[in-house]
Design a protein that fits this description.
Elements (H helix, E strand, L loop, with lengths): L5 H12 L3 H18 L28 H12 L2 E6 L2 E6 L2 H8 L13 H6 L13 H14 L2 H29 L6 E4 H19 L10 H12 L4 H4 L11 H30 L10 H11 L7 H15 L1 H15 L2 H14 L15 H13 L5 E5 L4 E3 L2 E3 L4 E5 H5 L45 H18 E4 L23 E6 L9
Parallel strand pairs: 2-7
Antiparallel strand pairs: 1-2, 3-9, 4-7, 5-6, 8-9
Length: 525
Amino acid sequence: MEFLPLQSLLSIITVILSLSLFICNSQLWRSRSSFANEKRTLPPQPGNAWPLIGHLHLFHGSKQDPIHVIFGNMADDLGPIFLIKLGVHRILVISNWEMAKQCFTTNDKVFSNRPNFLGLEIMGYNYAMFGFGPYGPYWRQMRKITTFELLSNLRLVKLKHVLESELKSSMEDMYRLWLEKKSSSNQVSMEMTKWFADTINLNVIFRMVVGKPHAGSADGWPKALQAFLDLAGTFSVSEALPMLRWLDMGGFVKAMERTAKEIDNFLSEWLEQHKQNRINFNSDDEHSEKDFMDVMLSVLDKEQISSYDVDTIIKATSLTVMAGTNSTTITLSWALSLLLNNRNTLKKEQQELDLHVARGRSVQESDLKKLVYLQAIIKETMRLHPAAPLAPHESMEDCKMGGYHVPAGTRVLINIPKIQRDPSVWPDPLEFRPERFLTTHKDVDVGGQHFELLPFGSGRRVCPGVSFSLQIIQLVLATLLHGFEIETPFDEPVDMTEKPGLVIPRAAPLEVLLKPRLHPCCYSI
C-alpha cells in the first residue's frame, strides 16, 4: 500500500491537535489506562508511537520501501508476532509459518473477518465484493455460489475454449507484429507487462465474465479498472483516522467516488445487455455459452440473498473476478522477469515444452499436467514474489496468539513474503531455484494447506480462484515460452524493483526482444 508524503502527515497532525483538546486528552487517558491493563499480555510493539497517529509516521518518506519489507525489518527486531498502531487501528503482524498456522487453524473462525477499507466501501458496492466483505451469512452464500457455480472445475472446463482461443489470437497478433516490425536481428521489441494485462484482463477474463461486449461498450474500461486497483491500494489518512474523512486530504475520497461511478456505468450497461439477451435469445438454454453474468442471473433467480439487491450482487461479483485477476498478470510478469535473469532455467523449460508438445502445434490445456518443471517455476515465482503480500484479516473476538492476548477488532496482516523467504524453511531463500519443488519441497503446494507457502491465503478466506488462476498462469506462460525466443535488450539483467501497493507489481516496464521459434502455421497466420 502507498502512503501520503511526510509533509502531508505533519500538516494532518497540526489539524488533529487543533481539534478539541479536552476530548483528545480524555480518549488518550482512557486508551493508556486500557493499554496499561493489557501491557503484560499484548504482543511486543515498536516504542516510538506518536499520540493519535501511532506508528503511522514510520511508513512515510520519499524513498519508502514496500510495506512488507518494513514489516519484515520490524520482525527481525520484535519477533514473528508484533503489534503496531496506525491511527485508531491496532494491527497484529504475523511473520512466520508457525504463527500463520495458528491463525488459519486454531483461530481460523476468529480471524475470518476482513477489515473495513475506505476504497472498498466507496468503490466496492459497500462491501458487496464478497472477497473483501465481512464474515457472515452474505459471505457464506456468495462463497458457495462462486465456488460451485462460477469457479467450479466443471465451469472451467466449459470455458477453457475461451482461454485457448483468446490466447491463440494474442499469439497471432504478436507474430503479426514481428512480421511487420522485426529488426535486422530478426527480433521485435515488446513491453510484456502490458501484453500480459491485455491478454488476460482485457481478453480472457473480460470474455469469461461479460462475454463479447457490443461495439464501443468497453472503451475506457481498462483505465477505469486500473484507477480502481490503484486507489484500492492507497492507504489514505482517512483509513487511519476516520474522523478526518471529511477533509479528504489528497483528494482520495473524491477520486474514489468518481471511479466508483465510472465502474458502475460500465457494469450496469453490460448487465442490462445480458438481461435483454435473456429475453431475446433465451440465453437460459443449457446448451448456450454462458459467461459469469449469465450464470449469476440464473443462480440468483433461485437464490434468496437479502443483504443486497440482485443487480448490486452481480456487478460486485463481476468486479471481484475482474479485479482479482490482476494478481495473475503480476505473477506472470515476475515469472518472465525471473526467467530472463536465469537463462538456464528458461532454456530448461523450453526443452520441457519441446519434449512434451514439440514444435508442430501450439500448447493445449491438456499438456499442462505433463509440464512439471513449469509448475515448479510458477510455485517458485509465487514464493519469491507473491502478488498480494499482506493477507488482511480481523479478529471477531478476543483470542490468544503465540501466548499473547489479541483483543477483538484487531486487524491482522500475514507478511507472506517474510514467511516465504524464511531461511529456516527455504535454503538460499533469495535464490530463484524451481528445482526445490521437485526435490526437498515437492509435496508443498499453493492451496493453503502448507503454511510456509501462502500466495492464495489459507483457511476460510482462502482465494476461491486458485485453480482458475493457476490454469491461466500455466497456459499463458507455457504458450509464450513455447512460441518465442525471448531476450532482454543488450542482454541486460531485468530490474526487479517492486512497486509499493496493495499488490506488488514490477516498478519498471518489462521490455523484451522476441523471435518466433515455431513454424508459421502454429501462429495461424
